[in-house]
Predict the structure.
Amino acid sequence: MSRIGIFFAEGFEEIEALTVVDLVRRAGIDIAMIGVEGKREVTGSHNITIKMDQTLEETDFEGLDMLVLPGGLKGTEGLENCDALMERLDDFYRSKKGIAAICAAPSIFGHRGYLKGRKATSYPSFESHLEGAAVTHCAVQVDGHVITGRGMGCSMPFGLAIVERFAGKEAAEQLAEKTVWTDRDK
């Protein structure tokens, strides 16, 4: 069974993170909410506190198939400042295991050189950080094992792209229908 880790730092964007968690769990895929700052509760950018499944120190990265980074300015900074997570992210990128980021968080991929020669998207004010990428303005951009999302309003297609990677296109389409996601072709 596939297993995904989604990482939380103080100031994360709640909708981007929790939409992914919700969709992935509805699809029957295992996803762990992981706090990177050693805490079991992490507060988002809109003062919503979420209980984590585990901390970074408790995480078995060998058992994960994808790492997901939600945005939020402060949350993105917290993720990028976590050296242990960045080392693991580098490992995943090099081994072509799945990595995904939305909103401000794709800037991390740009800073680390993952986007050279790839198509990628991000929140508009972070496009300059997508170093080496062919920047698109799509809601979600899939390029090989790298998935990027544009922003909070694109959380549904971003989450569905992750579901599609692990459960297939038909499962993602069925989930879109069940959740009444009617904007999936735009």
